[in-house]
């Protein structure tokens, strides 16, 4: 597992990798997946990380040029957030139904216990 420390200085992002468990993973950004350096030769890692960082910077520039309603955070992220909220409300409704069913079962069981 790799921990990435990000330093923000004058809006320029610098990434430093701390190796843990011999796994090198460079953090992605929104529409760009993370970069796994596990099987990349040592001689190419620095170049690969630089290219990944350039890709992220280019992606940010392209997103900035888009109209706000077409940007990733206003399309995919918005839908993911809505889906997450929907799942949360569904789970809450399920919990409420379960509690109602348990209360109903308890009332039913208690009413039959009194008869005998």
Structure report:
By secondary structure, the chain is of the alpha+beta class. The chain has two domains: 1-67, no CATH class; 75-116. Helices cover 55% and strands 16% of the residues. The chain is built from two helices and four strands. Strands 1-2 form a two-stranded antiparallel sheet. A two-stranded antiparallel sheet has the order 3-4.
What is shown here, in short?
With 116 residues, this protein is α+β, with helices and mostly antiparallel strands.
Summary keywords:
alpha+beta, 116 residues, 16% strand, 2 domains, two-stranded antiparallel ribbon, single chain
Biggest sheet, spatial arrangement of strands: 1-2
Radius of gyration based on Cα positions? 25 Å
Q: Number of folding domains?
A: 2
Pairing-aware structural class of the strands and helices?
alpha+beta
Spatial gap, N to C terminus: 62 Å
The proportion of residues forming helix, as a percent range, comes to: 55-70%
Q: What is the number of helical segments per DSSP (H or I, 4+ residues)?
A: 2
What shape does the CA trace take? elongated
Order of helices and strands: EEEEHH
Indicate the proportion of strand residues: 15-25%
Number of separate strands: 4
**Uncertain runs with pLDDT below 50, 5 residues or more?**
7-12
Q: What is the makeup of the main sheet?
A: 2 strands, antiparallel
């Amino acid at each position: 597992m790799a921990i990435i420390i990000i330093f923000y200085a004058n809006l320029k992002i610098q990434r430093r990798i701390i190796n843990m468990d011999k796994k090198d993973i460079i953090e992605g950004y929104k529409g760009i997946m993370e970069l796994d350096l596990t099987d990349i030769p040592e001689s190419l890692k620095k170049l690969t990380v630089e290219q990944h960082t350039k890709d992220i910077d280019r992606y940010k520039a392209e997103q900035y040029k888009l109209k706000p309603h077409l940007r990733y955070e206003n399309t995919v992220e918005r839908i993911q957030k809505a889906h997450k909220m929907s799942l949360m409300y569904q789970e809450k409704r399920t919990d409420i139904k379960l509690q109602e069913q348990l209360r109903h079962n308890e009332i039913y069981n208690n009413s039959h216990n009194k008869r005998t």
